[in-house]
Amino acid sequence: MSREKANEVRATSLPEHGPLDENGREILLSLKNVDITFGKGEDAVRAVQDASFDIYKGETFSLVGESGSGKTTVGRAVIRVNPLAAGEIQYKGVRISGKIPRSLDRAVIRNIQMVFQDPAVSLNERATVDYIISEGLYNFHLFENEADRVKKVETMIEEVGLLPEHLTRYPHEFSGGQRQRIGIARAMVMEPELVVADEPISALDVSIRAQVLNLMKKFQAEKGLTYLFIAHDLSVVRFISDRIGVIYKGRIVEVAEAEELFNYPLHPYTHSLISAIPIPDPELEKNKVLFTYDPSVHDYEQDKPEFVCIGHGHYVYGNKKEIEEYKAIRERNVPVKPITIRDPNAPVEARAEEAAGASAREEEFLVHPAHDTGSIWYKVLSFLLPLLGVIAMVVFDHFHHSRNAKACMKGAIAGGIFLAAILAIFLLLIVLAVI
Question: What is the CATH number of the domain that holds 40?
Fold first, then answer.
């Protein structure tokens, strides 16, 4: 038995400290080449693919991306709700994904808590606030006697800005912000080391969001908490984060410190997210030019992409050519300007031309799906097998892959002409032989 397997067998509890990286920072959570798949066979959906990142003790690591990108799926995998199809998740250097001993499972639940996105559905409507907050204390016997339990619950409810008399009420009697505070209290009363916050403010009024964020930062400062903060609003993420990971369609495309990422958004998807941040000035917002990410700009057929560090603690996903370009941009040490403001005083013709160009780019992106690349291989295969090329052209055209359909059509026509020429020569030779 190898040393690694022996360590896995012996790991029935969590160590006091996690491993250190080359800079002496303690790695609390580590995702290594994580794949998460839903469904089986042809219906399988690969929600997360090859995700890797570390979270250091005491920091706030934010995972950002558009809806459906896999953020919540990763968060639920950390708390062992979503199983992994490949890879592993380590907590303090101990594997916590897959099948683990019951004692280790209880230690993970005790040390990793989650604050859910919608406080209206994450709280038991039939239970009082007192029981909701106390449930973890009951399950793990984290109190000496009833008086100790009541003291812990009352102290926690006051720390989140509510009153002890609220403990006898039910969740439906509170506002959205108050319910989220109850959810935070339920997590914090367990005294966890890591909290997975799944868009904890997206369902709240704007006026309440800052209060909840300040409350979370207060707990982090007082208790030394570590956060995995899941969000789609980059303006909020910049306020609360130490480091940020950007995820697109289940793949981590960029990881860097917060200011580093905002000053040097290298991956075009990160660029597009930052350009979408609203500007408080309505005049500037009206003249802002949105940057739209088009995945077809990447050519990964020959030069396969990798997730690599380009220096400055900055990781980017790309092929060798893109990585060299990203390194050159970063080494120039000139901040990238992700937001472009159109000149309102420019001539009408120039503004109309610019608007037409933007509309054309958007129309091009909408008309051509991500994999509609018109690859030369479609032409080659259609040239060799014209009949198959015609069938492929019809299929691609049905699904609006116009570039692929055109490539198949050109290849099939060229292949058909070539075969017709070969057949004509063959027939001519037969005629000449007969004569």
Answer: 3.40.50.300
Beta-carbon contacts of residue 7 (< 8 Å; ≥ 6 apart): none
Give the residue numbers spanning the domain of 388: 376-434
Examine residue 308 and state whether it is found in any structural domain, yes or no. no
Structural domains in the chain (count): 2
CA separation for the pair 308, 305 (Å, rounded): 9
Q: How far is CA 39 from CA 47, 83, 85, 144, in A?
A: 10, 12, 11, 45
324-347 pLDDT per residue, tens: 999 999 999 888 887 888 776 666
Residue 339: strand pairing partners: none
Q: Is 96 exposed, middle or buried (0-12, 13-18, 19+ CB in 10 A)?
A: buried
Report residue 403 as tokens: 């570039």
Asked whether residue 315 is assigned to any structural domain, the reply reads: no
pTM above 0.90, yes or no: no
Q: Which of 19, 47, 18 is closest to 34 using CA atoms?
A: 47
Q: Using CB atoms within 10 A of its CB, is residue 207 exposed (0-12), middle (13-18) or buried (19+)?
A: exposed
In this structure, is residue 346 part of a structural domain? Answer: no
Angle (nearest 5°) at CA 423 between 419 and 425: 120
Is 62 found in the same domain as 208?
Answer: yes
